[in-house]
Write a structure and sequence with these properties.
Blueprint: E1 7-11, H1 15-26, E2 30-35, E3 48-49, E4 52-53, E5 58-59, H2 63-81, E6 86-88, E7 91-94, H3 98-108, E8 119-121, E9 136-139, E10 143-145, H4 147-160, E11 164-166, E12 181-184, H5 191-195, E13 202-212, E14 221-224, E15 226-230, E16 236-239, H6 255-264, E17 274-285, E18 292-295, E19 303-307, H7 313-328
Parallel strand pairs: 1-2, 1-12, 2-11, 7-14, 12-19
Antiparallel strand pairs: 3-10, 4-5, 6-10, 7-9, 8-9, 13-16, 13-17, 14-15, 15-16, 18-19
Amino acid sequence: MIQSTPRILIVGDGLAGALVTWELYFRGLDFVQWSDGSPAASSVAAGMFNPVSFRRILPQWDAANHQKEARKRFERIGKELDRTLWHDVPILRIFPDEAYADLWRERAQGGHEVSPFIECMAAEQMHPSIQAPHGAGIVRDAGWVDVNAFTEGSRLKWQDSDRWSQQSWSLEKGLPAGFSQVVDCRGVGAVEDLAQFGLELRRNHGEVLRIRPEADWGETTVNNVTWALPLGDGTYRVGSTYRWDTHEPVLREETPKELVTSVCRVRKSTDEPTLLEHQAGLRPSCFDRRPILGRVSSRHPYYFACTGWGTRGVSIGPTMVRWLADALVGLEMEVPDEVHPKRFTTFTEN
């Protein structure tokens, strides 16, 4: 049984940790957040939300419900922080070939589970900078969350109320005095502790750029596998790479050229954009692209995980932390099966 007035320790202050703090804050629960100061994947996250998997032209996991809840939560937090966090920006998907174009058009006509999210786009409706010989489709219910503004604003708020401290934690240290539970939001920092229970948290190395093109590229995100997201100030975030063999957030020299070359293939202008920033991070992800959530160990009943969100953190995050908080305070015995650690065949509650 948890204490009647629990005091919860959240370790990690990236996207996951920040969302947990707000969930507990809105519920009137007592919490403290610790961070060891190590760089979080959230610091280089594009923060994009998109209900469609472009590779197979299928809807993402419960996309409509997750994005509806995410919008409400980030808009509410934005008001608290006096910052605009949620930005609606449609995505123009450039068709790579005729077979892909035919499948998109067929599904856009209706009757498929992805149909409500996708439309075809006439050439004359596209921004004049774009070239799309096989055509393009559009996803209107898409955009991005300003993750940096969110995490930085949250950190300042909790510092001002003495709820944030720069301290490290690991499972070896156990439950600190004065706390009832620990929520582990360390991202890849939790890899070794979770491995003790047969839970593999994978490191997905990714790099993103910020560029300024010579010509206007419009106010729609353009995706041709590589994507260019307009930030509203004439600059664009471009990404991203995915590598499973790199376990440190290193900047690869060849990445800017690879990404810029790719994103410029669908532009008529041959002018080279100006590179403003090049960043790298390690995304925590799981085998099935769903997070590790909830109580992890019967021997350490205070220990809850909240990590492995991959690239869809802003979309699924608010729902995930609601599920987690329900389990923390005993409203639910467990988190739903689709995110529970027991879905790992190697899971052991030792």
